[in-house]
User: Fold this.
Amino acid sequence: MSEATTAPGFRATSTRDALTEVVRLGAQRMLTAALEAEVEAYIEGLQHIRDETGHRLVVRNGHLPEREITTGIGPLEVRQPRVNDRRVDEDGERLRFTSKILPPYLRRTKSIDELIPWLYLKGVSTGGFSDALTSILGPDAPGLSATSVVRLKQVWEKEFEVWNKRSLANKRYVYLWVDGVHFNVRLEGERACILVVIGATADGDKELLAVHDGVRESEQSWKEVLLDLKERGLDFSPEAAVGDGALGFWKALPKVYPKTRTQRCWVHKTANVLNHLPRRMQPEVKKRLHDIWMAETKELAERAFDHFVNLYQAKYPKAAECLTKDRDALLCFYDFPAEHWQHLRTTNPIESTFGTVRLRTKRTKGCGSRMATLTMVFKLAEAAQGSWRKLNGHQLLADLIQGVRFIDGIKVIAA
Assistant:
């Protein structure tokens, strides 16, 4: 008698593993086919959009690196199709394809603790979590009932409340990255976005510092955020803050931390400048902007800056004005260690964390609970925080704190 039939209702381990493997491989093939079909439909729907030379702006571009997705039936190895989308929106920001079947955020998911915040911010109701999680993790995954999800969210809300009131006494954050993040959950009343602050500690670690809801990205809302940090003990002014030029943050900052230097994000600024220029010119203009912020010294950057303005001022005054109005803030990073420049020129810590779930133009029809949304954003950032790496040259942060000057990224040695 075979081992698989030794007792009624009993299946041997070897048989059970074989069946599970068949199911797992079948699921893997189905997922691969679904991803291919999704990309094919996306590209076909945009095949009419072409550049001046008649070439498509949206095409296939091979595959992304293979990644492993944890499911209720075991790990699935997936190679997701890559899309090269060269379109830009009205703000000059690059449009990107994001799979609805397998979003980038799920790349490192190991438990439903990371799935639930993402699903909530995508508009899945509490009652719909069971079906959604069953589809993603399989029927054997734990904690799928609506009741257990509600209980888990309540625990998280308490964690967020404690975290949001934690003492910051004697804490020192050398750099701040700030942004207003919009999700496809419409908050109650006029609280239209989530204000996020990430700080770099004196040891070079990046930490989530604040998560608040705000009225758009107004000065008053940002002032409330900064005052809350100060009232909880953050008395030391950060050396520099990095953010998008459109934020009310810049008006609020000097009223709370007047000594903090300001650095505008070059990624946002590039997109804003390109928005004032014909599409045919954008590759050339983008390269000239790149020549500014990649110059080895501030003097060379100033020359490239002047050349850019002289070149485009007459025909494209709005583009030149968009760049020149933030000149000092765009070149602030030259007064800090060269090892830190790549961290200071963009708001990448925030963009990379929330980029796959943020949505600036659309809203779901229903209102989301204020506390639930804040909690979900907090959990998303908390999950991502474990993968944030230290700043390059973090040992130089001690010099900044002690007041050591840097010129063109090089430490000035006192005579």
